[in-house]
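Q: I'm writing up a methods section and want to include an example of the input and output format. Could you take the sequence below and give the corresponding predicted structure tokens, formatted cleanly so I can copy it straight into the document?
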Amino acid sequence: MPVGRGRLRFLPLLVCACSLGLICMALAFAPPSTVTPRDLPVTSSFEIVAEFPHDPDAYCQGLVFDGGNLFEGTGLNGKSSLRRVDLKTGKVLKIVPLEKRLFGEGITVWKDQIIQVTWKTGEGFVYDKESLRLIKKFRYSGQGWGLTHDDKHLILSDGSATLRFLDPETFKVVKRVDVRCAGRMPAAVNQLNELEYVNGEVLANIWYEDVIARIDPASGRVLGWIDLKPLVEASGRKDEHCVLNGIAWDATDERLFVTGKNWPRLYEIRVKQARN
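A: Here is the clean output for your methods example:
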């Protein structure tokens, strides 16, 4: 996605993260079979478990933790790359730059490979996970923003409210799921960005928002929000364009990492009990 938007800020939370009073009103007027309390998203807070250095020049577009290794995909034309990073020190251990014409986006680890997409060019790359050697290139339609997988399909966001599920061998679209926030009139959640698959849910950054959406990948329903506004305010980011972006899950030790574009720090956080 671009550095600036050039348009009025889109605020999905004005519709989705409404007050309890509005939720009750919606329930009162909605048909009983349409919306139930279980359908409504909840909001969770967090606590910081640990902080780590992060390259402030890294315009984070994708973040993955796998086998004790932290991988990061960065964006911007002329600065896009794939990196292996030392978690504790933030030191870049190996870097593969993309061509200057390319704007790097999301990454994911698929078996013994790393897959990376780009913004508007419809070009993707498959690397060997150990050496970061480029194995092959592939094409896909539309824009590329975030990328993850559910052990069966690659899951791609494109800045809209739709998640595309791709065959990991052919990169063809198998199905599409529209992401919506429940309520009296379910609202599409647009500008889905960086993705991570965690315990059966898709976690998604939303461009220029300080929350992470918890999404049911089968239905597209927003299950809840993780409110990271306090973290964003304390991140030491340079300006408003250095938005929250970057989610990585350590499945072995069940650790959740988050960062942002050009943030000087990366955080391990623990999600706390949700509230209505």
